[in-house]
Specification:
The complex is a heterodimer of chains A (about 550) and B (about 160). Chain A is mostly helical. Among the domains of chain A are: about 160 residues; about 170 residues, Up-down Bundle (Cytochrome C Oxidase, Chain A), CATH 1.20.210. Chain A is about 70% helix and about 0% strand. Chain A is built from 16 helices and no strands. In chain A, helix 3 packs antiparallel against helix 4 and helix 11 packs parallel to helix 14. The termini of chain A are far apart. Chain B folds into two domains: about 35 residues; about 110 residues, Cupredoxins -  blue copper proteins (Immunoglobulin-like, Sandwich), CATH 2.60.40. Chain B starts with a helix and ends with a strand. Chain B has about 160 residues and is of the alpha+beta class. The mean pLDDT of chain B is about 95. In chain B, the strands form two sheets. In chain B, strands 1, 2, 3, 5 and 8 form a five-stranded mixed sheet that branches. Chain B is elongated, with a radius of gyration of 20 Å. Classes of the chains: A mainly alpha (about 550), B alpha+beta (about 160).
């Protein structure tokens, strides 16, 4: 009989590869988090930056390091270890490919970082043309994406090998999910790669004089929305598969979990126009069509919420919980592996509701480019996703380094989560309110000539600085825990929790792994939603724009 | 594929709520005409200063149209022209704007007027000014080091 997955540790060589990704991620967290702290202090009006550093340079550092570098490195590290754990060690060629991907991404990160530090690329992490950064900045970002494709290739190769050796069997749930997220990423990054390689790089190198701004933005947002699902799905992997095991319960349904992941693959890409609702040059009918497609992700989101709380309730009742909500008290609140991601899940309720506002065809106009939006993605990405990633690392890092999360560290991890919840309530709450009053996002401290309206925003900006300071303490606590479990905690066997399906569950249908079908539908939806508006954009293009360096 | 009875109820409830929600948005957009600003007119971004109406930014009274005034704005790093304008209370105004250089925002703070200004495109939005007092216009899309200085004023005055 085969050994059960529980007994197997991630292969030491794969562990090393994953850990390399986590080291880069934690450096990005430390520097990007510090930049974030300084931003909130500057915007409170109580501090000025020394040595000619501008607010927008810091903002570029913050966005690139946290939204692009931290997330991509952490996710690839986590997914590689999840595949290694559930379908077995990577083959040597796959592992070498993984290392090539890692070094390519790291080189790209260093190139982009140097340009940002030299103030040659203060274009923020969305780098909208016709603001024009140094070509090395764009080259660096390209390498990050190419590296992620190489690593994705290693992961898919491992999955295909498993499928070949296990014909007719459903792959392990965690590996299936990692494959869906990798495919989502590859399909999505085609858009950003297209604009960087074919438009922005030739233009920044001076090979062409002008750029089609709207086409570039449209390609960027074709990527920009699935990007947020690329961040979210690894958190869902933890919520669906890891958390049930942590609470000693069972996965509610394997099939429904797979179905929701497939729905995210289908409906997260052909929706980028909802980020461009207020832009000229795009017919409102196509905007509305993509608004409809955007809202279809409501279905898998509701499925996820149901499954999670379903498995919580099943566990609580199996422990003898009484009444409608008695099971809630039975959950292991003293276990950081559960509690920290749970805070993230709870944050996803207001975060999701805010997302509905943002994507609503008309309501978007009230909040577009106000600091409400910043408040929104600090709940989704910077709370739901990041706290789940923290929760994952509390068992994954010691599992990979052969150490344990001690009782003391576990307690510190819960305190860390509480700090995060408090800090983010202040910061994100104040951002949401100030945004409704009209305060813009991505702007340094300004009273706009002592405008009474702008002066009303200042108290909320001070509240953001208070929240930002508490969050930075949270980051310091996290780094302390990370360093402990990576280098100093006592040696031992920390479990890699992989949940099992309830005994009553039916066999998982194989249709979920019919990739030709799902990728075919994905492509069809993308072509349906984008072909006509994109041809319109190209055919009706105004004269292009030359580059501007306005910082 | 088996689904729990409660899950079916939950998903039916969610899907019906979604359909109602999208219907409301659709009716508002296509029947009531509440569309996001989506002007399809283009312009040469290098020739904004010599292209009407942007060669003379400011407020113009018009007749025979659904709006009383046309308010022409030109945005460039890091200012709007005009820098200040007075509008009689209760008038309906069509804002017509474009950018001479990079992407800018055009937000009248505290109102629903909010649109992107992109080089090469004209942006338009029609609105009514019912409340007396000062309205702050700000740039809400990052445009460079002076982004947070970029503003203009609309003073709504009694007729």
């Amino acid at each position: 009989m085969k050994k059960t997955a529980e007994n197997e540790k991630v292969h030491p060589l794969d562990a090393k590869l994953s850990m390399a990704h986590f080291y880069v991620a934690i450096i990005a967290l430390a520097l990007g988090g510090f930049a974030g702290l300084l931003q909130t202090l500057v915007r409170s009006g109580r501090m000025e930056l020394p040595a000619g550093i501008t607010y927008y340079q810091l903002l570029t550092v913050h966005g690139v390091l946290l939204a692009l570098v931290l997330t991509t490195f952490f996710i690839i590290g986590f997914q590689l270890s999840a595949v290694s754990k559930t379908i077995g060690p990577l083959s040597t060629p796959s592992r070498i490919t993984g290392w090539i991907g890692f070094w390519t991404m790291t080189l790209g990160t260093v190139m982009a970082a140097v340009m940002v530090l030299l103030n040659e690329a203060s274009v923020l992490y969305t780098f909208y043309a016709p603001l024009q950064a140094h070509p090395i900045f764009y080259g660096g970002l390209t390498l990050v994406i190419v590296g992620s494709w190489i690593s994705g290739g290693a992961l898919i190769a491992a999955y295909r090998k498993w499928k070949k050796n296990n014909r007719g069997q459903a792959s392990p749930l965690l590996s299936f999910m990692a494959v869906v997220n990798t495919l989502l990423w590859i399909v999505a990054t085609i858009g950003v790669a297209a604009t960087v390689l074919f438009q922005i790089l030739p233009w920044s190198l001076g090979w062409v004089d002008s750029i089609n701004v709207l086409a570039s933005r449209t390609l960027f947002w074709y990527f920009g929305h699935p990007l947020v699902y690329f961040w979210l799905l690894p958190a869902y992997m933890c919520w669906y598969v890891v958390i049930p095991k942590v609470i000693c319960g069972k996965i509610f349904s394997d099939s429904l979990a797979r179905m929701s992941f497939i729905l995210f693959l289908l409906f997260s890409i052909p929706v980028g126009l909802h980020h461009q609702l207020l832009e000229p040059g795009i017919d409102p009918i196509w905007k509305f069509l993509q608004v409809i497609l955007t809202f279809l992700v409501v279905v898998p989101s509701l499925m996820t919420a149901f499954s999670l709380f379903g498995s919580f309730e099943q566990y609580g009742r199996s422990q003898g919980a009484q009444g409608i909500f008695g099971w809630f008290k039975m959950l292991p609140w003293g276990d950081a592996r559960f509690t920290v991601p749970f805070i993230g899940m709870a944050a996803f309720i207001p975060a999701g509701a805010g997302g509905l506002v943002n994507a609503s065809n008309q309501l978007n106009q009230v909040v577009h480019n106000t600091i409400w939006v910043t408040g929104h993605f600090h709940l989704t990405l910077a709370t739901s996703v990041i706290l789940t990633f923290f929760g994952i690392s509390y068992w994954l890092v010691p599992h990979l380094t052969g150490r344990t999360l001690t009782k003391k560290l576990n307690k510190l991890a819960i305190i860390q989560g509480v700090f995060w919840a408090i800090g983010m309530s202040f910061m994100s709450g104040a951002m949401h309110i100030a945004g409704l009053l009209g305060a813009p996002r991505r702007s340094s401290y300004s009273t706009y000539g002592d405008s009474t309206q702008a002066l009303d925003w200042i108290p909320y900006q001070i509240a953001q600085a208070v929240g930002g300071t508490i969050l930075f303490i949270g980051i310091i606590l996290y780094i302390i825990i990370f360093i402990q479990v990576a280098f100093f905690a006592p040696k031992g066997n920390e479990e890699f929790p992989v949940g099992e399906v309830t005994d009553k569950a039916e066999k998982t249908p194989l249709i979920f792994e019919n990739w030709k079908l799902w990728l075919g539908i994905t492509a069809a939806l993308i072509l349906f939603a984008y072909t006509i508006p994109f041809i319109d954009i190209l055919q009706n293009a105004p004269p292009g724009s030359k580059g501007f360096k306005l910082w | 594929m088996h689904m729990h009875k409660f899950e079916k109820v939950w998903l039916i409830f969610g899907t019906v709520a979604l359909l109602v929600f999208l219907t409301v948005l659709g009716v508002s957009a296509f029947y009531l005409g509440n569309q996001p600003p989506s002007c399809l007119v283009t312009i040469d971004p290098e020739k904004v200063e010599v292209t009407a109406p942007f060669n003379a930014p400011g407020l113009y009274e018009v007749t025979g149209k659904d709006w009383d005034y046309e308010l022409v704005f030109v945005a460039s790093a890091f200012s709007y022209s005009p820098a200040k304008v007075e509008i009689p209370k209760g008038s309906t105004v069509k804002v017509i704007a474009t950018s001479k250089d990079v992407i800018h925002g055009f937000e009248i703070a505290g109102t629903n007027v909010n649109m992107m200004l992109e080089p090469g495109f004209v942006s338009e939005y029609t609105t009514r000014f019912n409340n007396e007092g000062e309205n702050l216009i700000i740039c809400n899309e990052y445009c460079g080091v002076g982004h947070h200085m970029m503003s203009s004023r609309i003073e709504v005055v009694s007729k």
